[in-house]
Amino acid sequence: MSAYQTLSDTELLIQLKNGNHSAYTAIYNRYFYLMFTFAYKKLRDEELAKDFVQELFINLWNKRELLSESGKLSSYLYISIRSRMLDYFAHQKVQTKYLDFLKNYQIKTYDKTDYLVREKELNKYIEKEVQALPSKMKQIFELSRKKHLTHKEIAIKLNTSEHNISKQIANALKIFRAKLTSIF
């Protein structure tokens, strides 16, 4: 049994303030399990609880010169780890809200962007297929769909019958339907 195990918390604190590693080890051995149990009950995560306790003892060593010799060591340790856990929970809450916001924002933005990209690709594909039509059919289709002329106006302009215009447009649409069905 080490001589440090029999020392009071106040005596260990004085030794710790002077940089005594053995006093630090005695404090660690005396309070590690208590701090771990306390943290684990709140966090319900063994690894996270261990990390918090390790962080607590690292801070204890780093801030040893600032500790009050008249203070109660156990209270200091409990308050320190509790404060760290409260900070963690507050951070988790903010992080969860932020992630929820991002999920909702990304879905809305992604849907809109995705829709615009698909629309642009579809328009390119349709334009490519229009250009691949036979020249007379292409000319009739473009007058109908791009210039918004009626069948009668196209027939007059091209000096042909309205029936021929209807047939050409119907054939062009049949070609498009077959090609679009195969890609969708």
Q: Which stretches are poorly predicted, pLDDT < 50 over at least 5 residues?
A: none
Main β-sheet description:
none
Give the tally of β-strands: 0
- Count of separate structural domains: 2
In sequence order, what are the helices and strands, one letter per element? HHHHHHH
Distance between the termini: 79 Å
Strand portion: under 5%
| Backbone CA Rg | 39 Å
Count of helical segments?
7
Topology record:
Blueprint: H1 9-17, H2 21-43, H3 46-62, H4 73-131, H5 135-145, H6 151-158, H7 162-183
Would you kindly provide a brief summary of this structure?
The protein has 184 residues and is mainly α. It contains seven helices and no strands.
Description of the structure:
This protein has 184 residues and is an all-alpha fold. The chain folds into two domains: 3-87, Orthogonal Bundle (Rna Polymerase Sigma Factor, Chain: A), CATH 1.10.1740; 133-183, Arc Repressor Mutant, subunit A, CATH 1.10.10. It is built from seven helices and no strands. The protein has helices at 9-17, 21-43, 46-62, 73-131, 135-145, 151-158, 162-183. The longest helix is centred in the middle third of the chain and has 59 residues, at 73-131. It is rod-shaped.
